[in-house]
Amino acid sequence: MFVPWSSGTCCEAATPFATTTTAGQIFFATSYILHMLGWAFATLFVAGYTGLVRKPA
Q1: 57 within some domain
Q2: How high does pLDDT run on average in the chain?
Q3: Is 55 inside a domain boundary?
Q4: What is the count of structural domains for the chain?
Q5: Helices in 5-50 by DSSP H: which ranges?
Q6: Does 4 reside within a domain?
Q7: Which of 10, 42, 48, 51 has the fewest CB atoms within 10 Å, i.e. is most exposed?
Q8: 10 Å Cβ neighbour count for 27?
């Protein structure tokens, strides 16, 4: 079982897969980029749905 707070360092706990290989680094970078895009699109969706961003009259 993976427990993120069990390790002494945050970076080792946050990455339970091998980032020493090229495939691991590509996976980590792709995962990070997709995660950030997901948050960006979710933020834009909520802003548009709630009407926080309006066209100037």
Answers
A1: no
A2: 76
A3: no
A4: 1
A5: 10-14, 22-50
A6: no
A7: 51
A8: 15
Cα separation, 25 vs 13, whole angstroms: 16
Q: Is pLDDT above 90 for 23?
A: no
Report the distance separating Cα 37 and Cα 45, nearest Å: 12
CB 39 within 8 A of CB 33: no
The DSSP 8-state label assigned to residue 31 in this structure reads: H
- 18 CB contacts (<8 Å, ≥6 apart)? 24
What is the extent of the structural domain holding 45? Answer: 10-50
The answer to the question of residue 38 being in a domain is: yes
| pLDDT tens readout for residues 32-52 | 899 999 999 999 999 888 888
At residue 20, does pLDDT exceed 90? no
Q: Distance between CA 8 and CA 24 in Å, rounded? A: 22
